[in-house]
Triosephosphate isomerase
Amino acid sequence: MARRRIIAGNWKMNKTPSEAKALCAELKDLVKNDDVDVVYCVPAIDITTVVEAVAGTNVQVGAENFYIEDSGAFTGEISAPMLVDAGVKYVIMGHSERRDIFGENDILINAKVKKAFAAGLKPILCCGESLALRKAGTYKEWIERQITWDLDGVTADQVKELVIAYEPIWAIGTGETATADQAQEVCGFIRELIAKLYDQATAEAVRIQYGGSMNAGNAAELLSKPDIDGGLIGGASLKPDFGKIVNA
Ligand code: PEP
């Protein structure tokens, strides 16, 4: 079954609204490709600007975070209905920076996956191991545990719409990329896990990205692997290189 490629930028805490507008203009022609889903996941304050800037193009907008309640006394947070109303289609959750810096655990991430689906947002669910776990050889067990927790109570039909991003922490922002074979090994493992947790049709439908120092030079090889359906791109999503990754 052919899965549609999805290339998503994770801008992280970069770009003011005026810088965001300029970046959208710079990338506009470079990211054209009707065969690929192109997503810019941007800081909350940039969402309105970016939604306007990409209107009428092939780019969809994602958020980097949200909170699981619809409204109320949650100072500093934004909700899924707010994102939907603003024109957001995707939302990242489970990113290692949110797990490690902001203490988000799999119970919260699981609630976020369910809330995103209920609100009409597509989750980009991140998982991945530390260097210590990679060296210890226990990375698959770790990822199995993350995904099993994060998808608890999520239906097969929802998982068919899910994007899972495999992001080894040792490769994020370090310039060190997993080799295409290392990335394929884990992405293939994740697909087998989805088959075990759900069924073969669900495993064949779920889209799995690799993330971790993907760039214009290594994207084509990574994306040629059978279980790598796209990329989640940090640093290189802020540069014209992003267009080369979309068209790799
Ligand atoms: C990320 O943080 O999602 C990421 C993949 O970052 P980078 O591409 O900069 O390694």
